[in-house]
Specification:
Helices cover 40% and strands 19% of the residues. The longest helix has 23 residues. It folds into 2 domains: 152 residues, P-loop containing nucleotide triphosphate hydrolases (Rossmann fold, 3-Layer(aba) Sandwich), CATH 3.40.50.300; 119 residues, no CATH class. A 5-stranded parallel sheet has the order 2-3-1-4-5, covered by helices on one side. A 4-stranded parallel sheet has the order 7-8-6-9, with helices on one face. It is an alpha/beta fold and 282 residues long. 30% of the residues are buried. The protein is elongated and about 85 Å long. The model has no long low-confidence stretch (mean pLDDT 88). The chain contains 10 helices and 9 strands.
């Protein structure tokens, strides 16, 4: 088990960090009362609720920040490995972010304006910041840069979670509206013109045997695999969860069905979440 304590200044990106960690496979809890930290960590370890790591958000709103050094010491005395991630940014950047988003700083009040609330929060979190294993200044980062920095600095091995859907369809019935990529197979030899194959589909062995010996079909399949082998990992790196690849022929019965099955079979070797759907065969 690895426990990640995420803290930092309001507006520096703590919520974004937690969401990013959750997308990477972490079990995340925001604003857990810090007094429960050691007990929660022990129970999480015993029950195995975490996937590979647990992330807990701690900010200046908690009422027991002064107890953090002792709580961290208690964690150090156990077998639970933990790291503190602290996010910060320049005062001017934080003021600009709150102004642009119109969000309220959690420590502002009728008697405490924004600039003073930011300075007060720095003081409250100073002891935690000095104990941080990783400190990241987000002043000049966008969301994707912060996510990548967290993964690299915490040495997280992100699991591939993308779900690939290979969907066959017929152009005569319209292109699927939810497709991320659409590949047109109408230029390939058509089994429809073989009378003994007309009533069959790309799932039938006779149609498969016909198509797999066609040079154009082999070339198209090879080119599609090469293209997708190059670009699917880029979508994974961009934290995409779903990718729909639509393959169309005229009626959605032979060529597109065959190609969807072939591509799905190939990519199941590299990805767990591979699905196949044949729209016109339902």
């Amino acid at each position: 088990m690895k426990l990640i304590i995420v803290s930092g200044l309001s507006g520096a990106g703590k919520t974004i960090a937690l969401h990013s960690l959750e997308d990477m496979g972490a079990y995340c809890i925001d604003n857990l009362p810090v007094g429960l930290l050691p007990a929660f960590a022990e129970q999480a370890d015993k029950l195995g609720i975490m996937h590979q790591w647990v992330a807990i958000g701690v900010d200046a709103r908690t009422t027991a920040l002064h107890d953090m050094p002792a709580l961290l010491q208690r964690l150090s005395e156990t077998h639970i490995h933990y790291e503190v991630l602290f996010l910060e940014a320049d005062d001017a950047v934080l003021i600009k972010r709150f102004s642009e988003t119109r969000r309220k700083h959690p420590l502002t009040s009728a008697n405490l304006p924004l600039a003073e609330a930011i300075r007060h929060e720095r003081t409250l979190l100073a002891s935690l910041a000095t104990r941080a294993h990783v400190r990241i200044d987000t002043s000049h980062m966008h969301v994707h840069q912060l996510r990548d920095m967290i993964r690299l600095r915490l040495n997280l091995q992100v699991r591939q979670q993308i779900s690939l859907l290979f969907q066959s369809f017929g152009f005569k019935y319209g292109v699927p509206s939810d497709a991320d990529f659409v590949f047109d197979l109408r230029c390939l030899p058509n089994p429809h013109w073989e009378l003994e194959l007309r009533s069959l589909t790309g799932c039938d062995l006779a149609v498969q045997n016909f198509l797999m010996i066609q040079p154009k079909v082999q070339q198209m399949q090879s080119n599609l695999i090469q293209f997708l082998d190059t670009w699917i990992p880029q979508f994974v790196a961009d934290n995409r969860s779903y990718l729909t690849l639509a393959l169309g022929c005229t009626g959605g019965q032979h060529r597109s069905v065959y190609m969807a099955e072939q591509l799905a079979s190939y990519f199941r070797q590299s990805y767990d979440g591979v699905l196949v759907r044949h729209r016109e065969l339902l």
